Amino acid sequence: MNMMTDTLKVTKIADSKISSVDFNNLAFGTVFTDHMFVCEYKNGAWQNPEIKPYGPISMDPSAKVFHYGQAVFEGMKAYKDDNGKIFMFRPEENFNRINKSSERLAMPAFDKDYFFDGLNTLLNLESDWIKPGKDNSLYLRPFVIATENGVSASPSTEYKFIIICAPAQAYYSGEVKVLFADHYSRSADGGVGFAKAAGNYAAQFYPTELAKQKGYQQVVWTDANTHEYLEEAGTMNVFFRVGDTLLTAPTSDRILDGITRKSLIELAKSEGINVEVRPVKVSEIVEAAENGTLKEMFGAGTAAVISPISGFTHKDKEFDLPTLEEPYGARLKQHLTALQANRAEDPFGWRYEVPTIAV
Ligand code: COI
Model pTM? Predict the structure, then answer.
């Protein structure tokens, strides 16, 4: 990792576009704030960290990201409490994970000081875009792209690390029904499934579109070898409640090590819920749905938070989940989001208060 040497340059926009934004009607990830953070990698070092007006970036058509998809990203959120303080949730986890993803894609690790300095300054600058209150957040999308010119199939020697921000509410509106994969696969042993590699998401678009045509919002991916074990849903990890036990698959090189996922495991345990992290068989979930012990399924992710799943289909057999009065999913979501936005105690030390910076 390189030591931070350059100071952060800040160029502010002349007029904010915030007054044209309807904060009560936000489609996820479609409206972006006034500024973005950009840092370059060249000659073996990250350099020129900069916050500048949000806008298009210019790149040569031969830049490697366009040809080989050498790109990784993160999903994070910032929250504001009623006193105007800004928080992030376990940001160090995102920092570590983007570098883990980068390593797998033969990309250089980003610098921790630049990461936090860039985020903290950006959030101070975009403070008005972070709305307090339940379900409001600012979605942060750090990403790294290979910018070296030339189409030889080898790792780029130049990169851009960028952070853009989008005010957010719910990711999924309405009920989520899922299809258990029995043909296509998302990831394989020894592959890049654990990384937030851009191509992991593109590879899911086609099978997910097929599922959507049949009325399902998401595919729950199964292991590529046998399609017998439930893994993750691509935009979120998945939890199953059988009886009063929560089940979720262990992470592996095929499954994203979700920060919401691991926080929920701890949160649920702290609430006295029995949690089992172990391979979850398709057949046991189908059997539990048939015998009435499958009470809940939900997805967990930064963007999705906790999204209840109302039904699933496996090999053309459709199952609906019951409507519960006090589902674990809703209870955990309430607890997690309150903790994230400083409306609940944080005995875990997960909440990160963004320092006030004069910008
Ligand atoms: C996130 O939850 O932040 C993700 O990265 C999922 C994304 C594809 C929306």
Answer: 0.96
